[in-house]
Backbone:
DNA sequence: GCACCATATCATTCCCCGCTGATATGTCGT
DNA sequence: ACGACATATCAGCGGGGAATGATATGGTGC
């Protein structure tokens, strides 16, 4: 009984953490940010983010598995897009929060900004 | 010139990533979640989260430096609280997003759920 | 001042994850 | 079918950070 409650609680927390981790990487954020302005093919993402192509593909796979982006084949290109407007909402929430805490976040050296 | 733009862009991304990383940990999420229901002292957080005391203190330091929580001394206790309602907004938006992508997130094994 | 409780700090260990380089798969024009 | 481009996959390396255990600091009441 208690365990069920605890499991539920921790399962929720784990899921949140895992989702947050999906956003907690500069490369993935760069990709998501680029896609916020409309769908893009992989090589376009490579150009704009200045990341290596395998790197972009790896992150896209991750984002795709997580359901954060969707893909459509278009000829020999594969076009990726944001899967839900809620993602955009989340990103703007973060910016709103940064308006308040940016200073502290930058100062915090418990973990490194890559 | 171009570098300035790039620096600005990447600086923004880095800051977002760093903030997201602040939330991308089950222990910190447990602490923040507990604090969402009102201020708590450290030993109360230890009870509710079932984390070790040093662990809680370490994370609190991190959250404090980042400006995500604030603290007030109360006798020999130190009471911690959420610093901004925007944090609560962020957390509930994550849950809203999870309503859509929870399945995919759990399935994604590119990185591990702790 | 002394025992006690609450909280903070620090070093160490361990593991996760992101990047790279090479290679495989796939799709299109000719 | 072949060559060129677009994308995916995989092994291996390297670094960051979370948890622990021991210890230090600080406030409280007697």
Residues:
């Amino acid at each position: 009984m208690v365990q069920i409650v605890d499991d539920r609680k921790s399962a929720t927390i784990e899921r949140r953490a895992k989702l947050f981790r999906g956003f907690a990487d500069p490369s993935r954020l760069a990709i998501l940010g680029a896609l916020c302005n409309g769908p893009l093919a992989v090589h376009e993402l490579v150009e704009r983010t200045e990341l290596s192509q395998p790197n972009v593909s790896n992150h896209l796979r991750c984002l795709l598995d997580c359901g954060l982006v969707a893909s459509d084949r278009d000829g020999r290109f594969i076009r990726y897009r944001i899967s839900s407007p809620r993602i955009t909402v989340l990103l703007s929430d973060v910016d709103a929060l940064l308006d308040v805490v940016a200073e502290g976040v930058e100062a915090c050296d418990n973990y490194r900004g890559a």
Summary: Residues 31 and 103 of chain B are 25 Å apart (CA to CA).
